[in-house]
User: What shape does this take?
Amino acid sequence: MKILGLDPWKNGYELHKKIGVIPQEFTFFEKTSPREAINYYANLFGVKVDVNEILREVLLEDMAKQNFENLSGGQKQKMGLALSLVNAPELLFLDEPTTGLDPNARRAIWEVIRGLKAKGKTIILTTHYLDEAQQLSDRVAIMDHGRIVAMGTTEEIIQKHGSGERLEIHGNKKLAEYIKANTELQVKYDEAKMEITIPLEKKIDALAALAAAEQSGLDWGEIQTRQDSLDDVFVKLVSEPIEKQENTEVIEKTSKKKRR
Amino acid sequence: MVSGRRIYADFKVFSVGYLRNKFGLFFGLIFPVILILIFGAIFSGGGTGTVNVYAQNQDEGVFGQNIGDQFLAALNESTTIKVITVNASENFADYLAAHSASDGIIVPQSFSADYLSGQQVNVTIYGNPASSTSGIVGGTVGGYANYFNLQRFNGSMVIGLSSATVSTQQTTYVDFLIPGLIGFSILTSPMFSLVNISSEYKKTKLFKQLSLTPLTKMEWLISKVMWYIVLTIAGFLLMVGVGIFGFGAHVTLSPWLIPFLALGPMLFAALGMLVGTVTKSPETAGVIGNIVTFPMMFLAGTFFPITSMPQYLQTVAHVLPLFYVTEGLNNVMVYGNISGAIIDIAVLGIITLVIFVLAVKLFKWRED
Assistant: This one.
């Protein structure tokens, strides 16, 4: 395996100069401000940087002079992002950059990541939030026990591993049986949820199902058509809940590559 | 491989961060000064207390009467002077030097005869003009000389005083305390900080974060050592200042102190690093750090001279690295014993090198 032409096992020290990494739960010296930290990293890497430009890029200009300990969770992550940009890497590794953040802070980080993506950086981001993967990525890889079990664009993965479009009707068992008897559709019934599920081979099948329901004269409630989300696919593909897995760390990797 | 630019960058960030932390600054600089104030106040009391005065009575006596003995006995009754008798066969000046003593009296051979016959006779007072005790001795001896003169039937001035200068100074507790407490801060400040930092950075993965930069662990440790040397020198100046101006301590400042002020912080920063590295959690690191630090603090001649301890404890003291710091500082600052200090520097240098190399070798940026 080679990264940017370097063997990570043999040339780790050299490789670190070319990539940017934010470890999970990024921490820094408590009494150091983002501005000082960026200058510090620039000196360590031996590069000249425009500190203001980097601060602007990660939307952290207003907190530039605050000590790390006074930053909020999201601002700390932004500082991590800022530091990973100091050596102008082509390749960025972000390990769960939004874990533990509130929705607003997450969206702010997303904005920063989109900005970096637009600048042409290749970003490998690991996350437990599949909506984050769906929102940000060009390509997604789902990993189970350290192995990639699915990879592609979100649509590709859902199409390949998801169960297709289906109609869901809230109603009783009688209604389910009526629809089954009066159409050629497959009907599944979940007694506990009082939910009738009808897989749709063609979208027009939904009309037949609804016509039958109307004809039955029985009561029926909420209807919706839905498709498997990345979440559903993940649950299907990854064998056990994460908590039960031992020894192997499970990471769902969403890799985003810039289309060139 | 080792880059000065990176060391300086790390030094700058660390020192600025350190100075912003009031707590660390307090323990690094102010705390030892407070100790000097406390111990200095306890042991120096409000006044100087009794002054030890070495006295040689060369008086041969006359008619079985020895006025010299009576004179010294009277002096010993005073509240300001304690007379320590020196055998008449000793070379007095050498004896004072060998005992690091600055105050002495010689009663001359013909003292009794001259006193009784009314001949002028001088008691010689040895003293160091720089020492605060010589005034006390001069005043007291002069007072008793007058008393003896008045006791004579006509009160004529027979006993006079002459003075001789010695370069030695009497060591007081404060003289000893200053090198001791400098040793104390050389030990505690880098040691506790590095134990804490190394275990804490390991826990919060800050070391892992730093491993993603070109900074090497050797550079990181060197920058910490540099900072603690700076801090030690600042603390040194502060403590010496308080000692001299606050308690009239007599300490000699010499370039021979520099090796101790540099090697000491290096040794204990590396030792702290080592403790933090080999322990699993910050809690265990703290405990191990205390186990290593506290015996040194009390047994290595910090608060009391080790010569006041039983023999077996003195043997123990010689295994403690801090001993060579405090002994060396005492040799330079108090006893002026440079050849002794050079041996201390050599021993300290070897211990420091071993601990530093071990710390760099065993310390890992990340736990793999």
Q: What stands out?
A: The interface with chain A takes residues 3, 5-6, 8-10, 12-14, 16-18, 20-21, 204-206, 208-209, 211-215 of chain B (CB under 8 Å). The beta strands of chain B are 51-57, 81-86, 104-107, 121-127, 159-165.
